[in-house]
């Protein structure tokens, strides 16, 4: 398979995961310093705003970072509403749980989300689905992403039930860019192992007539 680009190159996933981890760092710093919901949320919001400012200054597209900021704001509102610091991470738990279900369904119905995402990035729309080898590769690699979300839920839920916001923040940091980096590398390895050696690569689906 003549494909020099990796999934990390195509999806820029590690940078997004690093950006997503900073609000958890800010929350942890505020929580450890004052042990109050307000301090944790203030730290998270300051970190999120810092990421937005940094990315906009570098000329990056604002949509992704603004969506991240919106997520932090919603999480903050939930925690302020309930009065429980651990609820700052409730949205994260719910989205990861939903991701397990959605990614699994996508594989079962033969619309693996990894293929959908990569196909959109490469401007292929749905042409990749007409390549049986690519469809098989994306389906197998998508299970790695399912596992990623399962790991997060399995770690987050007990900490949430125990009411440990500090530990949740640490877990959020650890399971951000390191786990995403491992997921990208593992799913790329699965794709390369699944596609035949003569396949031209992700950018060039072999369309079945």
UniProtKB/TrEMBL annotation:
The chain crosses the membrane at residues 28-52, 64-80, 100-122, 143-163, 169-191. Keywords: Membrane, Transmembrane, Transmembrane helix. This is DUF3159 domain-containing protein.
């Amino acid at each position: 398979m003549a494909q020099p680009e990796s999934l990390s190159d195509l999806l820029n996933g590690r940078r997004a995961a690093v950006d997503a981890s900073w609000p958890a760092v800010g929350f942890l710093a505020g929580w450890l310093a004052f042990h109050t919901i307000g301090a944790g949320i203030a730290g998270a919001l300051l970190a999120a705003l810092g990421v937005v400012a940094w990315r906009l200054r570098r000329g990056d597209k604002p949509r992704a970072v603004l969506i991240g900021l919106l997520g932090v704001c919603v999480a903050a509102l939930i925690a302020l509403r309930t009065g429980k610091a651990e609820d700052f991470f409730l949205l994260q738990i719910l989205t990861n749980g939903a991701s397990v279900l959605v990614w699994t369904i996508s594989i079962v119905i033969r619309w693996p989300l990894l293929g959908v995402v990569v196909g959109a990035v490469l401007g292929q729309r749905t042409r990749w689905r007409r390549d049986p080898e690519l469809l098989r590769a994306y389906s197998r690699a998508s299970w790695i992403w399912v596992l990623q979300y399962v790991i997060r839920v399995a770690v987050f839920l007990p900490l949430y039930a125990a009411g440990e916001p500090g530990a949740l923040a640490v877990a959020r940091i650890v399971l951000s860019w390191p786990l995403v980096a491992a997921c990208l590398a593992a799913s790329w390895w699965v794709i390369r192992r699944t596609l035949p050696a003569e396949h031209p690569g992700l950018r060039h689906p072999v369309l079945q007539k």
